[in-house]
Amino acid sequence: MHWTRWTALALLALLLAGCSSGPVRRVSEPSARIQQLTVRADGSWSTELRIENFSSIPMRFENVDLTVKVADAETGRLRAQPNLTIGPESADVITVTVMPDAAGKFAAADALASGGSLAYSLSGRIDATPDEGKQRSFDLDRNGVLSPAPGLPGVLR
What we know:
With 157 residues, this protein is of the alpha+beta class. It has one domain: Immunoglobulin-like (Sandwich), CATH 2.60.40. The chain has helices spanning 2-18, 102-114, and strands at residues 31-39, 45-53, 59-70, 73-80, 84-86, 90-98, 118-130, 136-146, 155-156. The longest helix has 17 residues, at 2-18. Residues 49-130 form the Late embryogenesis abundant protein LEA-2 subgroup domain. This is Late embryogenesis abundant protein LEA-2 subgroup domain-containing protein.
């Protein structure tokens, strides 16, 4: 009799668990970082910007507007409208060109010539729309460091 009561309770618990509403739909703040920076012959930078979706649902990234700072000074802006859908807890890369100011050009050239690192920060906004939701703006403030890529002239990773 005692065994039957526990079996019935276990079956009832399984039945109730089966009636749940499914996976939790969590929207988390996305992030972005420079994955690679290539200094071009004209002095502009081709940046591979890695956008990370930490949400449990797909997000459509529609607008990126980020200020790049090097040595605590604003160097340029990364602006793009990628219209890119990134799956849950995934990332993707977009390429954005920026024309840095003279201080940014000098800092990148110094890092490449010396084999040192280039510390940077990104701040600004990313607009994204959760799957079946309304567009939201997310503030971003992130620091990173890039180093010369061996065998790739003009490339920092």
